Amino acid sequence: MSKITIMLQLNGNWDNYDRFRDFEVDAIVVDENASYSILISTIAEQLSIDTSEKIVEIKYMVNDNCPPMEIRNDMGVRVYMENKKENKNLGLYSLCISVRDFNMKLAITNDNTSAGSSGSLKLLDMPSYPAIEEYQSEIITESTQTAIEEGQVYQDKQTVAAAMKYFSVMHKFHFRVKRSSHRSYWLVCVGENCKWHFKTTLINDSAMFKISSFNRQHTCSLMDETFIQHKRTAVAVGSMVIPKYCDPKTVYIPKDIQTDMLSEHGVNLSYMQAWRTKEKALQFLRGNPTDSYNKLPKYFYILKETYPGSVVKLKKTADECFLYAFVALCTSISGWQHCRPVVVIDGTFLKSAYKGIMLTASTMDEAGTILPLAYAVVDSENDASWKWFFEQFKQAYGERPSMCVVSDRNESILKATSIVYPVRSYTLDKFNESMSKIEEVDPRVKSYLYDIGYHIWSRVHATVNRTWTMASNIAESLNVVTKDARELPIFDLLEYMRTLLERWTNEKLLKAKGEGFKHIHTVLDDVKRYIHSPIGELHNIYGVGRYPKGLLKGLTNLQG
């Protein structure tokens, strides 16, 4: 019977994006036909877990597009082993181990004595946590805590860490992390042989941390100059100015940081330190740009589930690196059928860490407002990227008779549209050339066609499809709206576009409902007026083409 080596990830925690973080590593060797109980006992023995008091939860990641899969029984083990046998690399399909106490309050047992018998509730013992109840009313949730005292309870470890960064800025000193785990957080002063220290520990199995030891007295010779010159000043101050950058449209420059820190906290920063502070704040708020790309597979999966009928595509290179992203939400797709068949497309530069180009396609709805149809992020405006964009656009919106594409005449756009939407361009020069050839054959034919009327059969002379869209102003207006958002990492940029489109759609719906009720009341008032008017006032005779002033306008409004 063959053996399989499995890597274990333990003492970690799951983040909001279903990724196991801050874990330690171990490994086991088990038979490929092992049962669930054998797998549990092997893990418990290797990690010294008492299964009589603890519950062992086993999960593993299949791919980035789905949440972690949990192993609960023998079938779960068999599925995992089949995948592991095909991918025996130690780092693939690692088991994420979580350990917790028995905390079930109720268990449901079935009598099974008859088909109609109901379940009965059986009470189980549950360990109580008096510490949690004791401090429930004193739990600190704000990171801007000015008074740090021994015995305080914070809602989680992140709040403790942020509060201490704020505290260090207020008191102009620096600390370093001596120990950090999911159960403890221990800080000491950066000064040599300084006795200042700060310790917090986890309260039982909750997420809350309690300050167990805090010596606030410094025995080092740290001065304000030491704090100002320290390279980690930007990290500490950056966490304090994060709220200033929550709105991408907010303008908060390094000079503003210098002024506010000096007036509010007495900290004198150089311009370079203020600039680093801004960069750190943006990093805290938006995360690592690389991690932003890692969020896309799950984000696109959620978009498909939340907006059924949408077309979202993510294209990668051969080595699994990001290449293109395309989004066309179902709300825009459904609204396209009620718009003029005119698509205005454009590309604009991104200003985030990895640069790139955002391509947009938009139109004008019946209310005369902008309707974004699709948006994409590509590497640059080239033949390949525009061709891919139009292929996805055609999949989402198909083709419409007399559809017109308005652009800035980028050569790549012309090439892409000729491939994806193969149509012929009818020009006056080409028409005159063709008519000259006809005249050479038989002049009577040319005269006959002229008498019929060129506008009847010649596309270049056709009077239809006059859309009044002569420039790409729609795209330029959209670029202005997204100007500040184009500095965001790709995940935040795509989410900004989604919320922008959703907000515009909701505003249009609310406005349409309000206008609808307004017109209904107007029509009802007119009906009531006519009902109660004398018969003679209801019959008026007008000469042909001599309508009273304003009557045509009223008829037009009613018909619209």
UniProtKB/TrEMBL annotation:
InterPro entries: MULE_transposase_dom, Transposase_MuDR. Residues 342-422 form the MULE transposase domain. Residues 150-211 form the Transposase MuDR plant domain. PANTHER family: POLYPROTEIN, PUTATIVE-RELATED, PROTEIN FAR1-RELATED SEQUENCE 5-LIKE. This is Uncharacterized protein. It comes from Nicotiana tabacum.
